[in-house]
Amino acid sequence: MSLLSAVAVYFIIWWVVLFVALPFGLRTQEEDGDVTLGTVPSAPRGAHMRRALLRTTIIAAVVFGALYVAVGVFGIGLDDLPRIAPSH
Predict the structure, then answer these.
(1) pLDDT class for 85, splitting at 50, 70, 90?
(2) Which pTM does this prediction carry?
(3) Residue 21 CA, distance from chain mean position
(4) Is 52 in a helix, a strand, or coil?
(5) Are 23 and 69 in contact (CB under 8 A)?
């Protein structure tokens, strides 16, 4: 895998993991019982993006590392996935 391919794959993994990880650790204003006037009760309470970005980076690195080992060390690729023949 070339460096450019590795960066592209990591970027895609990072964005997918970000959208999965965003809701974790989020507390809403309604849960804290302190809704600011003019906001919806489901608005986040305080900033949590640093933790979310750090968590995303760590999880994406682990997933990318596993993928890199599977492809680079063991030589597993898309051609190794079983094909299911369509039944007619």
Answers:
(1) low
(2) 0.74
(3) 6
(4) helix
(5) no
Tokens of 34: 């302190």
Place of tokens 């999965």: 20
**Closest alpha carbon to 31 in 45, 50, 21, 48:** 45
Q: Which sequence spans correspond to the domains of the chain?
A: 3-80
The helices-and-strands tally (H runs, E runs) of the chain is: 3, 0
Centroid of chain to Cα 38: 32
The dihedral built from the CA positions of residue 71, 77, 78 and 84, taken in this order, carries a sign that is negative
3-state secondary structure of 34: coil
Question: Identity (one letter) of the amino acid at 67?
Answer: L
